[in-house]
Design goal:
The complex is a heterodimer. Chain A is mainly α. Chain A contains 9 helices and no strands. Chain A folds into 2 domains: 96 residues, RNA polymerase sigma factor, region 2, helix turn helix motif (Rna Polymerase Sigma Factor, Chain: A); 77 residues, Arc Repressor Mutant, subunit A. Chain B has 3 domains: 49 residues, no CATH class; 127 residues, no CATH class; 71 residues, no CATH class. Chain B has 14 helices and 3 strands. Classes of the chains: A mainly alpha, B mainly alpha. At the A-B interface, helix 2, helix 3, helix 4, helix 5 and helix 6 of A face helix 1, helix 3, helix 4, helix 12 and helix 14 of B.
């Protein structure tokens, strides 16, 4: 049975077919979610929510894009919602260590030295991107997708993807300026 | 090579992926184009920065448990759907009239009234203020309910709906009959936008039993998370009683959304009933979400600590 047939059966309420789809895609969804959430527990919660959403909406899938693109888009949206909620609850519970992410712009850049945690700066800078910029940046550089693939998955033009990518790069570069020489030398 | 081609290649490929022949062309272009050279340098910086990030690895041993959790949540959803359909969903086709009768009966129970009497096909487009909601239904269901206009200052509103004929109602949110229409819309209308608007209007009403019952039904049954969440917040305005406590506990143990589970826990934190602490701990016994586990632990297992530091 090919995938189209399996999807059609799942659309008709065949749970065995739906479970087959879960089996095919759960690992890929988990990895994608982990790249955004940066930890396994959150990624597992997201994966669970993704498949619940797939179950609720599978009848609306019209075979206009690949099934993976469709699931991928749901995964990105769910993962970002999850990180948004997490941020809100961290705020509520004061769990976030505010010193963890260092804002370069608020520091005297001349003071930057080896002891500054570069990874923390970079992760902090990534978190400061707008959601759209972060999405395309992650898709392009962490998930190694091509501009065309990103454009198909997000259902926006290639020009728009490039625009977000350029803006993301611009912002990140500003934050990474103090490390420029160090990075180019390595 | 033109700037645009160069830019496209640099944006689309990691440098190692670029074929040697094209690499040479790019290098030649970069040696004479400052703008592209700058883009290239920036790309290199970012590429090195990205490589410095710790690799996100997943523990594949967790996948079978994850799979079981996914399938469990889907079976729970199927159960929720089946109970919701038998009460409120009106399918098209042969079973429509049976379903309408079931739905109408259910709504009648929700509103604390049985709807009866022979059907009338007359049009109603005048103020509802003094009309009777049961008269309005006359053994029919209202569909496609829309909240057309709201004056938030005075509470005046206009609602349209389809019966066998078209219907327009005008009235005030303080009118119990209008409240019943909104309650009906919340538990029975297929359009989540209408259900959400109904909930929003209900937020200021804390004295109506019809609305309270409709909100409970929505929190437990609505398929749309946004509607459930808003209904939960509206419900939080009512003083906690046994019905509400059970509703919140039900959310904590069954709602698929962690955000709703957290809100339900936060509502119950205000409850001074001595049994609540144990009930919340029991309801969240199978909780997998770490944030929620932590909230429950901090508030209930280590009494004396509040979320708000």
């Amino acid at each position: 049975m090919n995938e189209t047939e399996i999807i059609r059966r799942a659309q008709d309420g065949d749970m065995a077919a739906f479970e087959q789809l879960v089996q095919t895609y759960e690992k890929r969804v988990l990895i994608t979610a982990a790249q955004i959430c940066r930890n396994q527990q959150d990624a597992e919660d997201v994966t669970q929510d993704v498949f619940l959403s797939v179950y609720r909406n599978i009848r609306t899938f019209r075979f206009e894009a690949s099934f993976y693109s469709w699931i991928y888009r749901i995964t990105m949206n769910t993962a970002f919602n999850h990180t948004r909620q997490r941020k809100y609850h961290e705020f509520l519970t004061n769990d976030e260590d505010e010193d963890r992410y260092i804002d370069v712009s608020e520091e005297d850049s001349t003071d930057f030295s080896e002891q500054t945690d570069f990874q923390a700066v970079f992760e902090g800078a990534l978190k400061k991107l707008s959601e759209k910029q972060r999405t395309v940046f992650i898709m392009r550089y962490l998930q190694h997708l091509k501009i065309k693939e990103i454009s198909t998955i997000l259902a926006v033009g290639e020009g728009t993807v490039k625009k977000y990518l350029f803006r993301a790069q611009e912002k990140l570069q500003n934050q990474l300026k103090p490390f420029k020489n160090q990075l180019l030398e390595d | 090579m033109k700037c645009r081609q160069c830019e496209d290649i640099l944006l689309n490929y990691d440098y190692e992926e670029i074929p040697e022949k094209i690499k040479k062309e790019i290098e030649a272009h970069l040696s004479r184009c400052i703008r592209c050279a700058e883009i290239w340098e920036n790309q290199q910086i970012l590429s090195k920065a990205i490589k410095s990030l710790p690799e996100v690895s997943i523990d594949e041993d967790h996948i079978p448990t994850l799979h079981a959790n996914i399938m469990n949540s889907i079976h729970r959803e199927m159960f929720r759907e089946s109970t919701q359909h038998s009460r409120f969903h009106v399918p098209a086709g042969t079973f429509r009239y049976v379903a309408v009768a079931v739905a109408t009966l259910a709504i009648g129970i929700v509103l604390g009234n049985f709807i009866g009497g022979p059907g009338s096909t007359g049009s109603v487009d005048t103020p509802l203020a003094s009309a009777n909601f049961n008269e309005l239904l006359k053994n029919q269901s209202l569909t496609d309910i829309r909240i057309e206009q709201v004056d938030h200052t005075t509470g005046e509103l206009v609602i349209s709906a389809a019966r066998k004929d078209n219907l327009t109602l005008t009235g005030n949110i303080s009118d119990p009959e209008i409240q019943k229409v909104l309650a009906y819309a919340l538990v029975s209308d297929q359009n989540p936008g209408t259900r959400l608007r109904s909930v929003k209007l209900m937020e200021g009403v804390t004295t109506s039993d019809a609305i309270q019952q409709a909100l409970i039904s929505s929190v437990l049954n609505d398929e749309n998370q946004g509607v459930r969440q808003r209904a939960l917040r509206a419900l939080a305005q009512y003083p906690i009683n046994d019905d509400l406590r059970n509703t919140y506990l039900n959310v904590i143990s069954n709602d698929p959304s962690p955000a709703l589970r957290i809100e339900a826990i936060q509502i119950l934190m205000q409850d001074e009933d001595p049994g609540t602490r144990t009930a919340v701990l029991n309801a969240s016994e199978e909780e997998k979400n770490e944030t929620i586990q932590d909230i429950v632990k901090r508030f209930y297992q280590e009494p004396g600590q509040s979320l708000e530091k």
